[in-house]
Every structure is written in structure tokens, then in C-alpha cells.
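--- STAGE predict ---
source: upstream dedup step, 1 unique chain passed
mode: sequence only
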Amino acid sequence: QVQLVESGGGLVQFGGSLRLSCAASGSVFSIYTMGWYRQAPGKQRELVARITRDGNTNYADSVKGRFTISRDNAKKTVYLQMNSLKPEDTAVYYCKQERVNSEYWGQGTQVTVSS
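--- STAGE serialize ---
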């Protein structure tokens, strides 16, 4: 059983920072692409950032220059450093592990940015 547990969400004021963590348990971590997605109320879930096993990254245009995804394979953890947060970043943030023919999701962590 693959388990992904997000943490680090919370309430932050405009311009603040948060670091989200996603810890994986019960799976081989290092070979899989990991991603962060978010879903705001009434909206579709969208990609925020992805990182491959080789450390290649890609970001949504809306977060480029503000967010950084990273991973620590020894700790089986992926991080999302979020800086210069805006109210439009408010959403539930989900961690995702991509495999060849399957994917796994965490339960999500709420990020709320006040204006």
C-alpha cells in the first residue's frame, strides 16, 4: 500500500511563505516522478509543480519564480517551498506519485492566504 502524507499547510498572510512536505511510505520512491497539485473551491485540480527522479522540474506559469519543488530520496519526501504567496494560491494542495500505469494521491493539505 502506497501512502502519501502531506503536511505544512495552514493560514498565511499575503506575501508570506510556507513549505509543504509529502512523505511517502510503503513504496519505492526514488524512481518515480512526484508532483504537487492544487484545487481551489469550485475549480478543477491543476498542476502546480512536478519533479522527476533525475531532478528535472516544471511549474505552472502562475507559480514560476515563487514556488520551488524539491525531493529528498533518502527521506522519501518531496517538498514545495512557496514564497510570495497570494490569495489566489488558496487551495487544497495534493501530493501525487506517478508510476508507469498508476498514480497515487495524498489526502491534501489546506493552504489559505489572507489578503
